[in-house]
């Protein structure tokens, strides 16, 4: 299992598997590590997780849009994740997540962030 698969698995399990009780604060560093692993791997397998709720690209897109709205300033781990994700994903004229998988990631992260803020 390569680094990208390892990071994808941790994030996917934390977001979508019942009984996996990761705190919201764990996700920003995990997305930063995933983005760094993708940047370091010229041959990224973008089909990773394609038959699950969210494939690799869905994680990137959903998290990017989530962290644009949910960060605590430039010195926060969420902003660091946003910058790292922005290094591998450029939304162009898009205005948010648009595939079912990226929307699911966005919504799961939003739910966890709201729970953390309460």
What does this entry look like structurally?
The mean pLDDT is 89. It is globular and about 40 Å long. It has one domain (3-117). Helices cover 59% and strands 0% of the residues. The chain has five helices and no strands. The protein has 118 residues and is mostly helical. The chain has helices spanning 3-16, 27-40, 56-69, 77-86, 100-117.
Throw out a few tags for this protein.
mainly alpha, 0% strand, 118 residues
Task: Draw up the topology in text.
Layout: H1 3-16, H2 27-40, H3 56-69, H4 77-86, H5 100-117
Helix pairs in contact: 1-2, 2-4, 3-4, 3-5
The H-and-E topology, N to C, reads as HHHHH
Structural class call reads mainly alpha
User: How many distinct folded domains?
Assistant: 1
Terminal CA distance reads: 37 Å
- Number of H/I helices: 5
Q: Give the low-confidence spans.
A: none
Rg, rounded, reads 13 Å
Q: In this structure, how is the largest beta sheet organized?
A: none
**Percent range for β-strand residues:** under 5%
What's the number of extended β-strand segments? 0
- Helical content stands at 55-70%
What coarse outline follows from CA principal-axis ratios?
globular
Mean pLDDT: 89
């Amino acid at each position: 299992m390569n680094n990208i698969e390892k990071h994808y698995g941790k994030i996917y399990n934390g977001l979508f598997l019942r009984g996996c009780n990761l705190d919201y604060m764990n996700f920003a560093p995990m997305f930063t590590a995933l983005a760094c692993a993708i940047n370091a791997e010229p041959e990224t397998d973008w089909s990773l997780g394609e038959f699950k709720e969210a494939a690799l690209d869905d994680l990137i897109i959903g998290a990017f849009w989530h962290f644009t709205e949910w960060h605590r300033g430039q010195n926060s781990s969420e902003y660091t994740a946003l910058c790292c994700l922005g290094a591998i994903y450029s939304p162009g004229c898009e205005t948010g997540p648009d595939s079912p998988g990226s929307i699911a990631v966005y919504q799961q992260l939003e739910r966890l962030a709201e729970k953390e803020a309460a």
